[in-house]
Design goal:
Chain lengths: 304, 422
């Protein structure tokens, strides 16, 4: 008998649990996607090394916890300036050289960076799967027939806060306005006296700070190993395209949609199908609404 | 014209140099074999452990006079994916001139590597991969010392039917089993053979059979919610290293209760990383493996006792731990290669094959308590490559079955509530 077709109180619990799982998983995806959508949206660079910065964030949390006994939530505070610095450096050393080059060159550069970072991690820290177990990762919260993990709830809350903060920053601050102007038309922005190089540097640094923080936050939930980033990053691209490039609220909504497709698809049809469903969705959006479900029409070609 | 001459001259010099190097290698006191393992990429963790196992046993072999009168040496190559496995196998044979290649542990790699080796007419000696198709391709110089995935499935169902069912007070036919597996040829091979035997031989009730991709699974909750409604007695889950801890943690969160959980192989629940990830929360999970703590060395033949003891001491000396699955498969496999070479006294493929086929050692004769009897397809026999069920008990994976081989006993049968497994 197909369990999905049974009705009754047990079924209500199931639906509630699936909904909770969707929201929490969506939060994790959003956390990873906001930095990507920022870089993608403003700089028009597909950062294929995004997942590797996530992995580095996870390693930071791992070593801080195992060597210094620091809780990931303490590390979170340190990680933001650290990864801001890392992003700044990577921009100055690598990205600045290719920012005006063709998309192909940018793709090769970031893919190369991704491979290099993975292998540096492999050389330095081996291929072992490493896991930390801070107290909150084994705290289970049970509410009305549903169960969830405390670390997951915190990751979700930070994801929401981060998305709102970035949204507000982009919308209401002067710097945010400058960044949006640069995204819309790089040349016009330059003519208006905007230092686009500085804008890109700032964008990249903020984007990497976000994903580094995301890595720290997911470290109690998932094992870290040199390829850990790959597990999430293809999803993040789907999310960014669904939500519209550079759209923070869109990234949040896109994450929820991807998580819902994954959770419902796994429950009803089986886990083997989940990628089929969300990549069909991905292709569908690219065909029918290339600007994303929530993006402004034509946004995908802006600044190209 | 002069430019062309220059190119030819360069080519001639290069060819001569290569030939000279090859001759120099041949004359040295080393006998080189190719070792192909994933040393980078997602499989690198286990690949490196295998390499460590190979190196430990290589040193043991050299302390005992090497092979064919020479010191055994390795040419190590990295095979992160099937394409690299094939090109590196070809390079080892053509450029490095090795006559024997061993490796690659992963079922994702061994097919491609052995195919390429066979094309160069070199001997391919697999120590660990379990893809059932491996020995069914009519390749005459391809051998495998470990049993295949169908053997894993066979042993797992044997354990469920003959050991678990009576302890639950049930007949095997009354058991409800949920199958869950990662979708590579390893997971599929084990799961499909277990499903078949469970149904055909014991009439067990299959309530679910679910596959997933271990590299992209981020949440098991939907599957666990579904399984909870199906209320299986036994969960048969073949997992890798990142997905197994995730399933176990989320099953605990969802308070998914089952009577037993069975896995096979040195990854996932059979990996040391699982215990590290979960501490005492890991308690109760079973994994079919090579022998672990509790293993009664006295249950082996005298010559098996001796070599097993020396092997354990060598691993202890190098790593400070009891041998892990990777060490045992690579080490046990390489030791068998030495036994064959001692007998064949040559790496000529036909004479080597004769030596392999003539080996007939009972269970308990060598490292891991294995015996040897190869079939015409180059596969060591299921019933000779003795396997053992291990269980996580307070941070340690201990041998619990078959009981004649061990001092330890399976606990928590049936598994109680999650917080009662102490």
């Amino acid at each position: 008998m197909d369990p999905a077709r049974r009705l009754g109180p047990a079924q209500i619990d199931v639906v509630a649990q699936l909904a909770v799982s969707t929201v929490l998983l969506g939060g994790i995806y959003a956390l990873i996607a906001v930095g990507l959508t920022l870089i993608f949206g403003i700089m028009r660079v597909v950062n294929f090394a995004h997942g590797e910065f996530l992995m580095l964030g996870m390693y930071l949390a791992f070593f801080a916890f195992t060597l210094e006994g620091l809780d990931p939530y303490v590390v979170l505070l340190i990680s933001i300036p650290i990864f801001y610095g890392v992003g700044w450096l990577v921009y100055v050393l690598i990205m600045r050289g290719v920012i005006h080059a063709s998309h192909n060159v940018q793709i090769f550069t970031t893919v190369g960076l991704s491979t290099a970072l993975q292998n540096v991690a492999l050389v330095l820290w081996t291929g072992d799967f490493r896991v930390i177990r801070p107290w909150h990762s084994s705290v289970v919260l049970r509410v009305a027939g549903t169960a969830f993990n405390l670390s997951q709830v915190v990751a979700w809350a930070v994801a929401v806060a981060l998305t709102i903060a970035l949204f507000a920053f982009m919308k209401w601050t002067h710097t945010g306005r400058v960044m949006r102007a640069t995204a819309q038309d790089r040349d016009a922005a330059t003519l208006m006296g905007i230092d686009t190089d500085r804008v890109y540097r700032l964008t990249f640094a903020i984007g990497i700070a976000c994903v580094g923080a995301a890595g720290v936050l997911v470290s109690p939930l998932y094992a870290v190993y040199p390829q850990a980033g790959l597990q999430f990053v293809t999803l993040a691209y789907v999310v960014v395209v669904l939500g519209g490039l550079g759209d923070m609220a869109g990234a949040m909504a896109g994450s929820l949609i991807v998580a819902a497709v994954e959770v419902a698809g796994s429950y009803v049809f089986g886990a083997a199908w989940k990628e089929v469903f969300y990549f069909l969705l991905f292709i569908g959006v690219l065909v029918f609404r290339p600007a994303g479900l929530f993006g402004q029409r034509g946004a995908e070609t802006l600044g190209a | 014209m002069t430019r062309h001459h220059l190119v030819f001259a360069l080519a001639a010099i290069l060819i001569t140099l290569t030939a000279v190097t090859a001759v120099v290698q041949g004359q040295s006191g080393d006998y080189k074999i190719g070792v192909l393992e994933p040393l980078t990429g997602p499989l690198a963790g286990e690949g490196k452990r295998h390499l460590e196992g190979f190196e430990i046993v290589r040193d043991m072999i050299n302390e005992r006079g090497g092979v064919m009168g020479k010191k055994l040496a390795f040419v190590v190559a990295d095979a992160p994916d099937p394409t690299a496995a094939a090109t590196e196998a070809t390079r080892l044979a053509t450029r490095e001139g090795v006559k024997i290649i061993t490796g690659t542990f992963s079922s994702r790699l061994c097919g491609a590597a052995s195919e390429a080796a066979a094309r160069q007419n070199v001997i391919y000696w697999e120590t660990s991969c379990v893809d059932p198709r491996f020995n069914k391709r009519g390749l005459k110089n391809v051998y495998r010392t470990e049993i295949d995935a169908t053997g894993f499935g066979w042993y797992n169902v044997e354990f469920i039917a003959k050991h678990l069912a009576p302890r639950f007070g049930k007949k095997p036919g009354e058991l409800k089993v949920a199958f869950l597996s990662e979708d590579s040829s390893y997971g599929q091979g084990v799961t499909e053979s277990a499903r078949q035997r469970a149904k055909a031989e014991f009439g067990m009730q299959e309530v679910a059979a679910e596959y997933y991709n271990f590299q992209t699974i981020n949440d098991f909750t939907p599957i666990i919610v579904k399984f909870k409604q199906l209320a299986p007695d036994v969960v048969h889950h073949i997992g890798y290293t990142n997905d197994a801890p995730l399933f176990w943690r989320q099953a605990r969160e969802q308070n998914f209760l089952f009577k037993a959980h069975v896995h096979a192989g040195a990854t996932g629940y059979g990996s040391a990383d699982f215990g590290k990830a979960l501490g005492n929360d890991a308690n109760g999970a079973f994994a079919l493996l090579e022998p672990g703590p509790g293993f009664r060395i006295e249950s082996l033949k005298p010559e098996g006792q001796k070599i097993e003891k020396e092997f354990r001491d060598a691993v202890q000396k190098r790593t400070g731990t009891y041998p892990f699955g990777g060490h045992q498969l690579a080490g046990g496999g390489l030791w068998l290669l030495k036994v064959v070479l001692d007998r064949a006294k040559t790496d000529d493929p036909d004479k080597f094959r004769e030596a392999v086929m003539s080996l007939d050692l009972p269970v308990g004769s060598t490292i891991n308590g294995w015996g040897v009897k190869f079939s015409e397809t180059g596969q060591n026999a299921n019933e000779r490559v003795q396997h053992y069920m291990l269980q996580w008990q307070n941070g340690e994976l201990v041998t619990v079955w078959p009981e004649e081989f061990t001092t330890k006993r399976a606990k928590w049968i049936p598994l109680g509530a999650w917080d009662q497994r102490k």
